[in-house]
Give the backbone structure.
Amino acid sequence: MVYTNRKHIAWYLGSCFCFIAFVFGSCSLTKPVKTGEMAYAVRQYDKAIELLEEEYKNETKDASKYRKAYLLGQCNDILQRFNEALKWFDIADQYAKTDKSAEDLAYALKKNERYVDAEKLFSVLYRKTKDNTFRGQADICRLAAKKQNEEPNYDLEPFSVNTKYSEYSPAFFEDEFIVFSSDREGSTGGDTYEATGHSFSDLFVMSKRGRQVHNFDAVINSAANEGTVCFNKTFDEIFFTRCVSEGRDGQFCKIYYSKRFNGYWVEPEPIMFFDDKTNFYHPTLIENDSVLIFSAAPDGKSYDLFYSERIGDGWSEAAIMPSVINSLGNEKFPTAYNDTLFFASDGHPGFGGLDVFKTYVNDDGSWARPKNMGFPINSGADDFGLIVEQSFTPSENIVLEGFFTSSRNYSNLDDIFFFSIYPEEEAEEEAEEEETEEVDEEIAEYQIYLAGRVVEVVYQDGDPNKEVTGKNPISNAFLNIETPDSTFSMNSDSNGRFLFEANSGQYKLIAKMQGFLSDKADVIIPDRSTLKADTTINIEIDLDKIVYDAEIVIPNIYYDYNKWNVRDDAKPSLNSLEELLVLNPRINIELGSHTDCRGEDDFNLDLSQKRAQSVVTYLTQNGISGNRLKAVGYGETNFAIDCNCADCTEEQHQINRRTTFKIIQ
């Protein structure tokens, strides 16, 4: 099996809510608050609602009323109280009447499955702003409204364990039991979690045939939050999420592991894929228990799926799943059934909040494009944690059967549902031509979306020659998009994201932002006739800040001994530099060449000048104006590593022998 990593390939310059669904990572838990704004800031959302509602009643100024209503919408949305969120976003829009307030209202309508109303509002926003993100959302709502009215071919029943609290992420345990997570009364510890006003979450167990629920195990459950569990095939290994307080920094979630001996679980230990301040959770096992897939946010922002391979008694370094799976939104709650991987995402086009998608490994080892599970699995609310018993076999009567979690009841937070999906009835075809027409019409329904994000690349110590340590979204970046038929432009949103519906063919996207180097992405959109579901292609355009007089090492520039001509193996790197100059016609650069300390000073100075000039000559021959280029040979006057020449290692000599560029005024 092949797992492809996403990497930063351009060498030049290159929420926190952890109850129930453990959605956003670290949480502030105990800070006392006096105002709704303060409670919201420290993520005590239940308390914030109580305070903000009282403050809203006492406000007299429209601007202040808008702010209170907006925060009430945000708090209720985070707590999955989507009806209340819609009410407050509607009130906020009445006071503000801005594009932002209308956008909040449109997404709230979508989460409440009022797709026709949401489509109308997204369409109005598109006509006003020409932001293709809104056009894409209008298309999604139009499709959702159509699917919503189709004849159902399924049974859907609330599971008997559901209460007025949250129950979520079920897992099969042995032959007779189901383990699930809940913040119901009776959880270990007894404290109240200030974000929700409920207990901390624990693991519970019940017989599939019974109704009596028990705490899973005293060794596994603690006074912290536990949830999202998986077991190996022999049920003597458990992997689960635990969120532990890290003092003033709040709670951070990690994957814990325990093994069962003679019927008893040993004290669980965290598997440290990342540092203490990184959230990673939602484990599932695939490939005969040899690969662990989980969700993580190393950059502290959106969540992606990662994997680790079992090595003896340990696990390999975590690696990110490919971009065909990871969108620019959040991917969470992976589960597996045979060769199918299910996961939840709010980045791929869906019907509201988190939607369940499925994918599998192709014959060539690559992952197939995720397919939205559609109704009834997905709704306007959050839907996730789908499980299918390994012994289940599809039949002519039942296509798929199992459990999943949803907040679609809007008043009970998360609930577990049992589902059965039946085969769709086949219409009788009168002629082959008619069948072909119907297939073509079905294919025509599938949409292709290009979703992207413009980000600033962050380097260790701010040095572009060092490793990338993170990425920050760039809001309002300008995008010029060339399609097979036309050219249009748009801007990224406040999170650096953009979205538009695409047709087949090659697209060229150029991202620009004042103070940054422009960059581009080339994307090939597949033929619609090859699609089997709505498809989203995700891209990320990395921009680097313009820093003057900072030396950037050009990789893979080598010269023959005492020679200065540009070798063929150096041309790919120089072609990338040429592309940078074409995309940024207003910058000028200095090309510098450096030698190591061996050899005579004058000889090295002359040799380095010739080498720098050969790079300038190569670029001018490829169309770059010589007025933008300056060649400087430094010889052995400016070492990257200042070591005693007699003691320098060959590696240090190699680092000192370098070709660089810097942006000059």
In short: Residues 154-421 form a domain with the Neuraminidase fold (CATH 2.120.10.30). The two ends are 50 Å apart (CA to CA). The mean pLDDT is 83.
